[in-house]
Amino acid sequence: MTLSAQIRDHHFDHILLNAAGVMCQTTEELDQIIETSNTGAVVTKSATTAPRPGNPKPRYHEMQDNLGTINSMGLPNEGFDYYLDYVLDKQNTTSKSIFFSIAGLTKQENIDMLHRLQDSNFNGLVELNLSCPNVPGKPQTAYDFEATQAILEEAFAFFTGDLGVKLPPYFDIVHFNQIAEVLNQFPLAFVNTINSIGNGLVIDPETDTVVIKPKGGFGGLGGTIVKATALANVRALRQRLNSSIKVIGTGGVTSGRDVYDLILCGADLIEIGSQLAIEGTPVFDRVTDELTAILKAKGYDNLNQVRGQLQIIE
Ligand SMILES: O=C1NC(=O)NC(C(=O)O)N1
């Protein structure tokens, strides 16, 4: 059973990887994802130029009955140079692809980091995170179509590597049309959808209190409760984007069936975030086994027979 995929010159023996932010802030965590069976790649914690401690704790919470997670991490990371040092060394010793995620707090900070990557020997893929909902006072850039267009115009004026964007979820068909119209103007290698559903609120029933400290308890939602939104965004963007732009499906994956459903909607790679944080790296083997069982039961022997094959009711 070949669970493989391709983005430009990057071949993925496995379609699974972590979602940026989960188990990827330190070199030890990154190594663990790479060394885990049934991952085809790794993505780094979204980097800012300088190291960041992130928001005050508690800033992450797992809901009851595996409903999902809420987080307001606030881009805690070791800083750009730490991840550049790591990827330049690691790319020589692993066959797995590496995604370098960046999330500058301004357009210029993102452009500066892209120049550093352009001038480096990094041969992996770059993910421009335009969707972090948790830095107080900072917007999710990809909800501003003009700002998204402007940063991509400036980036592609010099950047020649394999660049993709991490998008927030959209909830309006017109917005699917508008973001696709912007993205189709650029030679993007991929689009990764979705980031967490921004600014949800979770209450502790024992104490009538929010469960995370930052922003009065407002944080990004992930896990089971975001699956339907992830499916819709993968489907809508796949239907609208040029075929040269691959789609990474992220959001709500807790089982092989969830992976299968995202592939039906057109995803090429699949990221696991919340369930990886909850279950640890065994999630990759479990989900792969479940997916393999579904494919066998349906008589499929590769994912191309599934990808994009979601049926509608005529
Ligand atoms: O892009 C992000 N999405 C999230 O849900 N959380 C992190 C963060 O807060 O750092 N960043």
TrEMBL record:
Q: Which UniProt keywords apply?
A: Cytoplasm, Flavoprotein, FMN, Oxidoreductase, Pyrimidine biosynthesis
Q: Which organism is it from?
A: Leuconostoc fallax
Highest taxon of source? Bacteria
Q: Which cofactor does it need?
A: FMN
Gene Ontology MF annotations = dihydroorotate dehydrogenase (fumarate) activity
Which processes are annotated in GO (biological process)?
'de novo' pyrimidine nucleobase biosynthetic process; 'de novo' UMP biosynthetic process
Q: Which residues form the Dihydroorotate dehydrogenase catalytic domain?
A: 3-295
| EC category name | oxidoreductase
Subunit structure of this chain's protein = Homodimer.
Listed under GO cellular component are: cytoplasm
Catalytic reaction equation(s): (S)-dihydroorotate + fumarate = orotate + succinate
Q: Protein name, please?
A: dihydroorotate oxidase (fumarate)
EC numbers on record: 1.3.98.1
The record's family statement is: Belongs to the dihydroorotate dehydrogenase family. Type 1 subfamily.
Enumerate the InterPro entries for this protein.
Answer: Aldolase_TIM, DHO_dehydrogenase, DHOD_1A, Dihydro_DH_chainA_dom2, Dihydroorotate_DH_1_2, Dihydroorotate_DH_cat, Dihydroorotate_DH_CS
Metabolic or biological pathway, per its Swiss-Prot or TrEMBL entry = Pyrimidine metabolism; UMP biosynthesis via de novo pathway
